Amino acid sequence: MRQKSTRTYPPLWRLLRYGKPYRVQIWGATLCSILRTLLDLAPPYLIGVAVDVVVEQEASLIARFGIQNPLNQLLVLSVLTIAVWGLESLSQYAADKIWRNLAQTLQHELRVDTYNHLQELELAYFEDRSTGILLSILNDDINQLEDFFNSGAQDLIGFFTRVFAVGMSFLLLAPGIAWLAMLPIPFILWGTFTFQSRLAPRYDTVRDRAGIISDRLANNISGIATIKSFTAEAYESDRVLTESEAYRRSNKRAIGLSVAFQPVLRFLILLGFVLTLHLGGREVLQGRLTVGTYSFMVFIVQDLLWPFTELSEIMDEYQRAMASVRRVMGLLDTAIAIPHGNNSLPIATIAGQVQFDRITFAYSDRNDILKNLSLQIPAGATIGIVGATGSGKSTLVKLLLRFYEVQSGRILIDEIDIRDLNLCDLRRCIGWVSQDVFLFHGTVAENICYGSFHANQEQIIHAAKLAAADEFIEQLPQGYDTIVGERGQKLSGGQRQRIAIARAILKDPPILILDEATSAVDNETEAAIQKSLAMITQNRTTIAIAHRLSTIRHSHCIYVMDRGQIVEQGTHEELLFLNGIYATLWSVQSGLSSKLC
């Protein structure tokens, strides 16, 4: 990944800095575009020379090079025309090929770099931003840059090359009237860039609106079952209509300003053309200008001024692209709040001792979730953590995984501060089964071996059996090759949970975290999983978070959390004897169990 800059640069400069490894291709494409434009300007020159040959004959411009016969002059001019057209076609081919390949390469690298940087950001970043907006940056904005390189860059280079080349020709051939043809240019430029300065923020708004509607659509598609179950189709349709209308209005405001300048440009261009036509003709009649030069100027003045009618469209495309650059580079410039440590931690060397040493943590703009909490877990021990919702149980294990950073205190594995460890090594040694199971769109087998990509079929089936998942998997239409659907929507909650447990088992980590790992399974399946876990947790540090106390009843030690602190600890029997929070919870659950039976 490229080094990120903390300085503020214009978006085009940022884009060119990013493409620095491809500066040879950029320069090559630029030169081909310039050459193509110059050769495209040749026909008016050649027409002027042809008129000069026909009118002046032995006194023509070509005659000065030793070719006196007018017929031979026309033959030379014909060969020259063929050469110019051939070179123009060749330069156009080279420019298009280089620019388009460059567009594909930069688009590919920018998307991959942006995605890789996104993966490095902490979970809090994603909690503050919508998925749709991030997808809009990764897709829409980067695709906008592809369009700019495919056509916009060539248009921009061609415009400035054309104006410069034609302007210099006017100054060299007819300096007396050149200034009249160029008279409208300063007014056109002033108006164009003034209008563009007002257009830029409107396109920023357009890109923001595009992200919002993308987010709305992504959320609605993900939650389609909820929408249908609450018969909220009309409500969501109205919300999409509102967001789409807001996007349409923001585009309408940008378009309204974009097209407003076109009529004024045409009038100024007409003024320059008429001045050249009239005053140039007078110069010819008075013998101060040749017919060939006059013919050239009448033709070429359009190439000097007419591109200004396209300048607003070129700048319009440029501003769209630069709005996208600002969003993409803004994402790339986002600081990584949880950096990698420098120390490696080979799995083979891990004993599994975990220590929370006086840690305090609060989510952004909220009160402390954990307050000066200390907890030591011996290597190979199985502990249970219980407590009311919001007491900090899941937060504790997320801090162990360094999804978030503690505000004070430290967390140690085998007496090493996890902030000093390489993040990949840290997370590789921990198997985490979350209460919110996520399955990827793919087969059952692919989801079980996710993270253990080199596992064979036998290992996958063994892990599934330990997780009490093999039986239901074998009953699926294609067994382990059955597609689970997006987020595993084709499976029940209990089935998804058992696949997640199998995935953690296959990883074979020294530290295992079970965060409500059996909350979505029935009693019979839970009993089967409990038997497997008794074997799985041997010689492995296990942290089990549970509301169902039967899941952690046989733990070496159970910790009861309340308002971010540990208020009780001990074995199941010891906690019952204390007759505190745990005993009350056990009494309630046992009573409910009796009634259910």
- Count up the helices: 22
Strands of the widest sheet, in order across it, are: 6-7-8-3-9-10
What is the straight-line distance between the termini? 59 Å
- Oligomer designation: single chain
Report the portion of residues in β strands.
5-15%
What is the helix fraction of residues, given as a range?
55-70%
Question: How would you describe the overall organization of this protein?
Answer:
- Residues 1-6 and 592-597 have low confidence and may be disordered.
- A six-stranded mixed beta sheet has the order 6-7-8-3-9-10, with helices on both faces. A four-stranded antiparallel beta sheet has the order 2-1-4-5, covered by helices on one side.
- Helices cover 62% and strands 10% of the residues.
- With 597 residues, it is α/β, with parallel strands linked by helices.
- A hairpin with a 2-residue loop joins strand 4 and strand 5 (416-417).
- The chain has helices spanning 11-18, 23-40, 42-56, 70-120, 123-127, 131-173, 175-182, 185-222, 224-229, 233-260, 262-285, 291-305, 307-332, 393-400, 423-428, 444-448, 457-466, 470-474, 493-507, 523-536, 572-578, 581-596; strands spanning 354-362, 368-377, 382-387, 408-413, 416-417, 430-433, 511-515, 541-545, 557-562, 565-570.
